[in-house]
Structure formats: C-alpha cells, structure tokens
Design goal:
about 160 residues; mainly beta; AOC barrel-like; eight-stranded antiparallel β-barrel; 1 helix; about 10% helix; globular
Length: about 160
C-alpha cells in the first residue's frame, strides 16, 4: 500500500487541479469611461426613416481593480417615425493586457444593455452582460457608467 500512496496523491492532486482550472466564477464589474465623438455620419433611409452614426473614442477605469482602459466604438441611432432604436459595437484595450469586444444597444423600452462578445489575454473566453447609462456633457462629449457580470471559460 505504501508503494501506491504517492501515485494516489498525484492522481488526486492532478484531478483537483483540472477541476479548479475549469471552474467558472461569475465576476461583477463596474466602471466609467469618458468619450468624445470623432466623426458623425447621417443617412436618410426612406421617408420618416434615418440613421445617425457616431464614431467615438475615450478612456475609462474599472472601479473594482482601478484598471485603466481605452475604448473605441461605433454607435448608431435609427429613427423610424417616432421610434428610436440604438446600438453599436465597442472594443477596449486594457493597460494591463487584454482586449474585449462588446455589443451594446438601447432596446425599444429604452433599456440600455451590453454583452461581452470576446476577449484576448486575461479576458480570453469572456462572456456575460450588463447595463449602462450615458450622459452627454457637451457637444460630442460625454461619459458612460456601466455594470455587468462576466465569466471566463478557459479554452
């Protein structure tokens, strides 16, 4: 029995490590980024229908870690008579390594939601969603507060 004990301990250790490596923990994060509009594009789609798209850039931080990131996004508002629907995509680059791609939108009932689509570096395998609120503070300038949950799934 003594002869097999080290092998049993190694197997238990390896199995324990494998289990820990695939465990998914939900993480809550929040932050703020400030942005400015680089370019505005307008397009008339049809009678009573138009779109305005804004190319924006900015910088932000994550409240829980103090991590700083840069952000670029394209955000469009679609006008259909009295209805407005907005959405876009964003890409962030962390100063401490890793990028994240995000889809964000205003729903018909005016909820503002986002979904983490993909990540690299320490954010590889990211998935999750959250909410955001934006405030315009001047012509072409504003800030966005966001809060969400994500998990990292090892590849």
């Amino acid at each position: 029995m003594r002869r097999f004990l080290p092998c049993i301990l190694v197997v238990l250790f390896v199995l324990g490590s494998a289990t820990a490596a695939t465990c998914q923990e939900k993480v809550t994060m929040s932050g703020r980024h400030v942005w400015h509009t680089l370019e505005t594009l307008s397009h008339q789609v049809g009678e009573g229908q138009s779109a305005e798209c804004y190319k924006r850039a900015g910088v932000g931080f994550i409240n829980e870690t103090g991590e700083v990131y840069t952000i670029t996004n394209m955000y469009c508002l679609y006008y259909f008579g009295n209805n407005i629907v907005g959405g876009g995509v964003a890409s962030t680059q962390s100063e401490q390594g890793g990028t994240v791609s995000i889809f964000h939108m205003n729903t018909k009932d005016n909820k503002r939601i986002f979904r983490w689509l993909s990540g690299t570096g320490k954010y590889q395998g990211i998935s999750g969603e959250g909410t955001f609120e934006s405030q315009i503070v001047g012509e072409g300038m504003g800030y966005t507060d966001w809060r969400g949950e994500y998990t990292l799934t090892p590849k």
